[in-house]
Specification:
The chain is of the alpha/beta class. The protein has a single domain (10-236), classed as Rossmann fold (3-Layer(aba) Sandwich), CATH 3.40.50. It has six helices and twelve strands. It has an eight-stranded mixed β-sheet with strand order 5-4-1-6-9-10-11-12, with helices on both faces. A two-stranded antiparallel ribbon has the order 2-3. Strand 11 (202-208) and strand 12 form a beta hairpin. Helix 1 crosses helix 6. 41% of the residues are buried. Bound molecules: ligand PMT. Ligand PMT binds at residues 32-37, 78, 97-101, 103, 138, 140-142, 158-161, 189, 191, 196-198, 221. Its EC number is 4.1.1.36, 6.3.2.5.
Length: 242
């Protein structure tokens, strides 16, 4: 499909990777650069949409290169992202969750830097280094948008980052995720081994909420973004499969 006319539409895109604090200097994170999400935001803006980009730790260079029509909202952790996405989505026609959101966060955030235990410090030194970090589950933002949409009828697209290839069952995992999360569209992409994260080409297979393949796209992240925005434009217009 060609470039859709998204004039008058509001599209919310999430991008980047959340960081879940362990103590004031450390976090649990992931390798998402936010490049795919920024490309989606730019593609939607180029089609005339008003775009809100909720971004977690995306580099200033990527943010500075966005079209002026893209409003950016920072959200560093999963909880901050949930609040910012839901707020922005109240008048959105479509929400695209391209961010890599941590499924878990440390159950407790230490108020001061966790010190390494050193026997030489004697009994008054730092307590033993923690052998493990207790985790607690983060909300699933995408599943929440499906279960309780900020604006009923809006299109919700998720991404599924899967390691392995088609032979290793990446599509089966993706289809199970599509059915479980219930988003209108789920773009399954392979990550790891030089694919997926960062300044690399991308390749996605798009599934519907039943787990059936409706489209695929590959090339640069900009190419993939244009194809996905065209698919969303089609659905907004009540096109095939809407
Ligand atoms: O940022 P780049 O470097 O360009 O890389 C792009 C990308 C690989 C990060 C991107 O294309 C991508 O796949 N993003 C989703 C990564 C991810 O978190 O996948 P997941 O399978 O863990 O999650 C599935 C979906 O649920 C995603 O839409 C995610 O945003 C959403 N989710 C996940 C966990 C959570 N607690 N809440 C969520 O909403």
């Amino acid at each position: 499909p060609g470039a859709p006319d998204l004039t008058g539409r509001h599209i919310v895109v999430s991008a980047g990777g959340t960081r879940e604090p362990i103590d004031p200097v450390r976090f649990l994170g992931n390798w998402s650069s936010g490049r795919q999400g920024c490309a989606l935001a730019a593609a939607a803006a180029q089609c005339g949409a008003r775009v809100t980009l909720v971004q977690a730790h995306v580099s200033p260079e990527l943010l500075a290169a966005l079209p002026a029509r893209v409003e950016t909202v920072p959200a560093g952790t999963a909880l901050e992202m949930e609040a910012a996405v839901r707020r922005a989505a109240t008048d959105a026609d479509a929400v695209i969750m391209a961010a890599a959101v941590a499924d878990h966060r440390p159950a407790r955030v230490a108020a001061t830097k966790i010190k390494k235990h050193d026997a030489a410090d004697g009994p008054d030194g730092p307590a033993a280094s923690p052998a493990a970090i207790d985790l607690t589950e983060n909300p699933d933002i995408l599943a929440g948008l499906v279960a309780d949409p900020p604006r009923p009828g809006q299109i919700v697209m998720g991404f599924a980052a899967e390691t392995g290839d088609e032979a290793a069952g990446v599509l089966e995992h993706g289809a199970a995720k599509a059915r479980r999360k219930g988003a209108d569209l789920l773009a399954v992409n392979q990550v790891g081994g030089g694919r997926g994260f960062g300044e690399v080409p991308n390749s996605v297979i798009v599934l519907d909420r039943k787990g059936e393949r409706v489209a695929q796209a590959q090339g640069s992240k900009e190419d993939v973004a244009r194809a996905l925005i065209a698919l969303i434009g089609e659905r907004l217009d009540g096109g095939p499969g809407s």
